[in-house]
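Cross-check.
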Amino acid sequence: MIPTTITAGTRLDNVPDSKYLEYGAKHQCVLPIQGIMSDDLNATFRGSCVLIDPYHIITAAHVVSNSLTQNVVINNKVIPVSVIAVHSNFVFKKNGYNDIAVGRLSQPIEIDFYPKLYTGSDEKGKVCSIAGWGHYGTLGKGYGPFDNKRRAGSNVVTNYYLDTLMVETDDEHTSLEFLICPGDSGGGMFIDQKLAGINSFIMAKDGKGDADYGDEGCFTRISKFEPWIRAVIKQVDAIDRMSPEEIQSLQEATRKTMKNEKT
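Predicted model, tokenized:
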């Protein structure tokens, strides 16, 4: 299988897109995140994230790991992320390897429902909903254009490996069968209305990561990272209260520590 980083999702060919848009509207906590990369061109990036309380988001590390700025968008309003924390063991070239990040918003976002974190280890075999703001298309043809709309569908957790949950498309499991696409990265998988996974990547049996039949969707397993998430939320909250001088001192100390570790 060929792993590919993914981007809202592919659907059943015989189900109208409007059904997936309607279901997407029920996932208020899944929002777009965008910003500027720290490359030579200062290119822009766009993905998805999950709002777990008024101030905190969870997203995929590969979405924000090399970014200078991050902004969450809701109702055409841009909310800057004041602090972003990428898992220290994330490796960009290893799909799904600690692919998780936590951010603190500069101001709160109020919505009707914030998902709790799924902490059980019994995800396999459970029906899940999946939501994101990426490209869309059908499972028969693969993903196509991008239209800046949130879509959601459903599937069944068919397997897991270490820190990754998986869903398949070989068989039709649900009436709103769905697979993640480019731009969905960082969005959420939900079990019993709890956040169980973060959209991460696709495994493509045919070497084409186009989110068609035969591909598998892979998600960072929240139950494995729940203690880390809780600890990092406290850390980003503490950093948010620091003065610019304190932050600079912390950054310098971190750089020295990383330099010593390498030597």
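Residues 1-7 have pLDDT under 50 and may be disordered. The chain has four helices and 17 strands. Passed to J.P. for a second look.
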